[in-house]
Design brief:
homodimer; about 450 residues; alpha/beta; FAD/NAD(P)-binding domain; 4-stranded parallel sheet; globular
Chain lengths: ~450, ~450
């Protein structure tokens, strides 16, 4: 492969050498990491004992365990259960500092990152791991109506919408208005959409059932709209079938082969084999499609359709081996020639790989290309319902659900969070009470 | 006392009779309760088994345990730990319904409450328990600079300010700017101010100590500004002295006999016996002075200087015995002739009293005037530091602190919250980790 060959032919020490700028701490190799998600943090941690200077820059002060974010949206967990201050995670890593700031651009000549507040952060190696946002396929005007779920504020906003819809339905006097308020449409039946739909169905049918007087929350309609012909297209066929059965059991209505053609206050319009139709729905949640962070723009190069930056098999730029792009922001081809999916394990493995690559380069050694090891795919659907594809085995139902829970608690950062999430789940499991049903924030949407 | 005599001479059944409007459920006596704080909820619960129809109206969907709100502001607890959906609390109370809505006014002739969305809620008896907001003594322009602490969104906003101040100090290049960012001024040394100051000092000096590289959070200055000559003026003198010692031990600077004369972005100006001076401070928190909810305006009567509505010894209006005002919104004189303080136990006892009053009146019986039983005053200052005045005994230090913790956990509504708060505290106590250090919300103040 050409880019790899090119890279390997450069002297490794030049690709990663210190250079003309010296920092306060002297001439140690400066690794700047943009983004403290799974990829960025795993890179930072893999550099813990190394003789380099690590700077982690993030817009937020916390690392977010995104796989459980939907549980904040459906009021099952509190934000603090799934987020940990980046500083706490790195507090004992003496060679790392954390800066809160918004990236505006990268000066590749001067080897500096520009922040929105005017600061310039010099680097010798740069790791871009700034993730992705939800995307609306050219319909950004849908965002206010159909929010996506990537950040904590997205999740508490969606929680507010969901809970307010029930509150307003309780007060509605017209039957039509009540029906619209009790219709929830989730767009996209990937893992996030499926998880949201299942959890929302349980919220309505169990946790809220006894709370209202004028409405019966069990009558809420939960629609899961998917353009493909089956949910969870990243899973094998027969697990999609299992997921479909489990969703039906929870009362979720699956609309397959259905494209969303319009989103507005009143509801959504979909198009499927039966033609176009409008479904009145007060709450629409977007779980379809993502767009990479604007890293391509910062780096002054062209991204692919989803905004991702194409990288070499060593995860750096073909023409600039000291700049690495990983995680959801990178377009990295897997062994099968297809792009690796935007999931946490890919980002984590890439972060570790890049850290090791840099250290080997500093020691004058070259590295093998990155190879992703896929431990499997997991999605939960509801109480004792999940699907798991581990490659060498597939599971569904209770066993997959327990496995899903175990894996997620295991990978949560912070022992405190593990304990508190486990307790919240046990509590919810035995008592059908969800813990965080607060309508916060002050807007009236 | 005149109003009481007047009231007692009215036939009790007329004070609480049904009347011209009949509700959907027939002719049961309709009790409408405005506000689901301590007062409103205790009234609702005391009516649980009674043959009346209870409607609880609140702007929020949750009951908030305000005595622990400062812990959300200093990132010790999550909002969901101290708030419970009102519907959950009343879910098994068949005669109660909950409406989320903003009160606009009361039509005393038609006996209806107007809500902002145009709904009108008829009542036979009305209990106004809508609490208080912080007040700025005619300087409302200070609010954006010096936020108060009454609601969850206030607390998460203050949490954001506090944590952002440390983040910005870490990045500051000028010494002056860093000093200002690391100066926190709390105005008002009542229980809330003292608790905030103590907890903030511990956050800076313990929990955050190892998290930063460019600054030492232990150098943060925490100022507690109080116009009186001692903190905790509602406590006996010698407990104020103990509190002062404990605050000093935590490194809090007490500025006594100091009036705030200006609040702005850059800091606060205070005036004391040494004259006026300006203290640069990036974070100012307002814990002085409250203003009752606009109940007087809704009822078309004059409130006192703090907006409170004067009530008879039976807690109703002199000229309208079917309208009760309780809690922070009521001006109710205690046995000593002074107004009862705006604390949870007063509101709770008043709520229970009014419920019993209404039921007795419906049965044709009169009630004795309300009498407040004071179980004591509590304030915590920090780790193993608190003061308690139980009347028959006074405590300070570790014993008072344990007592404070026990009482607060006991009175939290919801077993789940008790468990989770207890666990959070044990965790923080043994590990000096605080659990909810998230900067959320999207504004940049």
């Amino acid at each position: 492969m050409a880019p790899e060959a090119t890279l390997d032919r450069r002297p490794a020490s030049s690709a990663a050498s210190g250079g003309d700028r010296s920092s306060a701490a002297g001439s140690r190799h400066r690794v700047v990491i943009l983004g403290a998600g799974f990829g960025g943090l795993s890179a930072a941690k893999a550099l813990a004992k190394a003789p380099v200077e690590v700077t982690v820059i993030d817009r937020r002060n916390y690392h977010l365990f995104q796989p459980l974010l939907y549980q904040v949206a459906i009021a099952g967990l509190s934000p603090a259960d799934i987020a940990v201050p980046i500083r706490s995670i790195l507090r004992h890593q003496a060679n790392a500092r954390v800066l809160m700031g918004e990236v505006e651009g990268v000066d590749r000549q001067a080897r500096e990152v520009f922040l929105a507040d005017g600061r310039r952060i010099p680097f010798d190696s740069l790791i871009v791991a700034t993730g992705a946002r939800h995307a609306y396929f050219g319909h950004d005007e849908w965002e206010p109506v159909a929010p996506g779920l990537k950040q904590i504020d997205d999740a508490t906003g969606i929680r507010r919408r969901i809970l307010l819809a029930f509150e307003r339905a309780e007060m509605a006097t017209a039957e039509k208005a009540r029906e619209r308020l009790l219709t929830f449409a989730i767009v996209g039946a990937g893992p996030t959409g499926v998880e949201l739909a299942g959890a929302l169905a349980e919220l309505a049918k169990k946790a809220l059932a006894a709370d209202f007087r004028a409405i019966d929350p069990r009558e809420a309609r939960i629609l899961l709209v998917e353009a493909a012909e089956r949910p969870l297209t990243s899973f094998p066929d027969h697990l999609s079938v299992k997921a479909t059965t489990q969703l039906h059991k929870l009362g979720v209505e699956l609309l397959l082969g259905a494209k969303v053609t319009r989103c507005e206050e009143a509801g959504i319009e979909i198009e499927d084999s039966r033609g176009r139709r409008f479904i009145p729905a007060a709450t629409v949640i977007w779980a379809a499609g993502v767009q990479a962070s604007p890293a391509a723009r910062w780096l002054g190069i062209a991204g692919d359709r989803a905004g991702r930056v194409a990288v070499t098999p060593h995860l750096n730029l073909p023409d600039d081996p000291r700049i690495f792009v990983i995680g959801d922001t990178a377009l990295c081809l897997g062994a099968n020639g297809k792009p690796l999916p935007g999931v946490a394990p890919v980002a984590k493995q890439q972060g570790g790989y890049v850290a090791r690559y840099i250290l080997r380069a500093l020691a004058g050694r070259s590295s093998k290309p990155f190879a992703y090891f896929n431990y499997g795919n997991l999605a939960t659907i509801g109480r004792r319902a999940a699907v798991a594809d581990l490659g060498w085995m597939q599971m569904s139902g209770t066993l997959a659900w327990l496995f899903w829970g175990g894996v997620h608690i295991f990978f949560l950062i912070g022992f405190r969070n593990r304990i508190f999430v486990l307790l919240s789940w046990l509590w919810a499991y035995f008592l059908f009470h969800s813990g965080a049903r607060l309508i916060t924030g002050d807007d009236n949407d």
